[in-house]
Amino acid sequence: MQGVSLIFKVLLGFVVITAALILFLYYNNAYGMKILREEVSKTNYTLLQSHGLQMDSGLQEATYYLLRLITSDTSYPDLITLSLFPMDSSNYFFAKQRTMRSFTNNLDVFREVDIFFVYSKTTDDVIFATRDQHLLTESDQMIRTEMLQTADDPNKSWRSTKQGDHRYLYRTEKISPEIIVGAVVNVGTFLSPLGDVRFGDKGMAMLLDANREPINDSAIPAEQMAVARGAKGSEPLGDGTYRMSYEGVPYLLIGYPLKETGLELAAILPEQDLLRRLTFFQRMIYMIPIAGTLVLILYFLFLKKVLQKPLQDLMNGMRSIMRGNLEFRIAAGNVREFVFLTDTFNKMVTQIRYLKMDVYEEQLKKKEAEYKHLQAQINPHFYLNSLNLIYSLSELEENALVQKMTEHLAAYFRFIMRGSREYVTIEEETAHIRDYLEIQKLRFPSKMFYTCEISDKLLEIPLPPLSIQPFVENAVVHGMKKPGHVFRLDIQIKQSDSNLACMDIRVADNGPGFPPDLLRALQEGSYAGNSAVKHLGIWNVQERLRLKYGQAASFAFENLTTGGAEVTLTVPIEQRRGDEDTHD
């Protein structure tokens, strides 16, 4: 495992220290911004609180006035008269005039109220007084369409409504089942004291309902609407203040709840407007990362000249030695420590030049000897099986079969006699297997058949000899033990689906399958040839292929659900070498 370079460690240490300083500066800058937000929030919250208390006081006084009309006000007899007499009577007329005069006088007292009204169910007449003459035409319709509908609601509070392009707050009270009085406040008039307050270029004051919907009298830009609606899910800063972003622009929303209405008096302030007067903070935001980057670049150039270049020369020399170039020498530098290192390195290379490094060649020779030994162990195993076949065919006294068997047997032993070769082609290996299977078919006519499916592009691929035959022989020997059973053997060689650089060699039969203990040992890799001499061929193949291909060779052993065993060998596809002798 390669370690971390010295240059990297030194640079990392400097980066950590520099990053800590930058973070500290950022923290100070962020802390200053936080204090600024808190102070701005407190100042604006105090402003909103002052206006909110004034608004609550005005609405509260208007509420008390409506309640006095129900009980003790001098206008109470006139209001009762409106429910007792018809509209064309003189009593009704004079009572109506006195009521309108009383409402007009009280509009001068309650500056927040724009309309006082009374409604008589007996005559279906709305009597009102307003300070805004433009409301004369729409006040009657506005009072009838919505305000009278909520008179029976037990939840007595100020409500909001919209009429045309304007927003209003209203409250109604019942004097009797036939008489309803109420007061109406224009939201625009209500917020007018905040009109002279500067909240920035995109800032503004507004009233918010319980659902965070603005109910200002004037149109509200979509950006401010989105900020108001998203306040509840944003970062709270205390005192009714929230911090959020809309399309990358940070905002502060400061709110003060109005007790009389259930609404919230709010102000939206863009943070960029707060920073315009604080140029130091703005400059620091940009200068800190730039200054840190410049310092890192200068320090890196210094390290590259003083430390990295001598170390890189030394590492290049070591790599050159590893590639076998013993003529490489490192030029001396001007740093005392590195002069000593380079001089020592050059002397060591001179000494290594006179040593013969052959450890690797010895290891290769050792593995090759092991491979040859394992390959030679297979031949006696095949000879014994061949003698048994000859003996069986001789007992049958079938000359034609003996002649055919002799032809296959000659080809079979010709292949065995050439077993000292390092590689054979897939085509040669499978031809040898067919000779073996044809001999078995002659021995057991009508009791076995086989298929052999090979991809054409794999026929010339080299493979260690006798890599497939032991698995075929094992399948025949154990699969033929099942009485009254026609034995079937399938051989398939194709390019691997999971790794195109490998090929899958599959040998499957319909015999009894592997015994459970043996199958488990094969799958776990704990199976050894010494534990069962009759399976020596399989163990030899495993060892030979692992010596040749290492971890690239794999073996899979399974029992098929339909009966029988399946062995799959996966080995790399290596192109045939030009100097390999695969023929006689």
Percent helix, as a range, is 40-55%
Low-confidence spans:
529-533, 578-584
Strand fraction band? 15-25%
Largest sheet entry: 5 strands, antiparallel
- Cα distance spanning the termini: 47 Å
Number of strands: 17
Radius of gyration: 50 Å
How many discrete structural domains? Answer: 3
Described by the principal axes of the CA atoms, the overall outline is elongated
Mean pLDDT: 76
Secondary structural class: alpha+beta
In the sheet with the most strands, the strands line up as 2-1-5-4-3
**Treating each run of at least 4 consecutive H or I residues as one helix, how many helices?**
15
Description:
The chain has 584 residues and is an alpha+beta fold. It has 3 domains: 1-277, no CATH class; 281-353; 361-572, Histidine kinase-like ATPase, C-terminal domain (Heat Shock Protein 90, 2-Layer Sandwich), CATH 3.30.565.10. Helix content is 50%, strand content 19%. It is built from 15 helices and 17 strands. It is elongated and about 145 Å long. The relative contact order is 0.06. Mean pLDDT is 76; it is low at 529-533 and 578-584.
